[in-house]
Input
Amino acid sequence: MRTLAGVSGSAAMAGALVDPIVEPVVIVDEAATTSSAGILIPILLILLLGVALSGGSETVMER
Output
């Protein structure tokens, strides 16, 4: 009976009161693309073309 109490007593003391080591889960969140970025380049090209076409002529005034 004494050995049974000794075995069960040591098994109960086997665990410690220390928090278990848990590795953090890494979640990779990809950045969402904005829809305005795709329209920006064509708008800039149209504006550049408009400026190039409007500033191309010079007129000479006679007195």
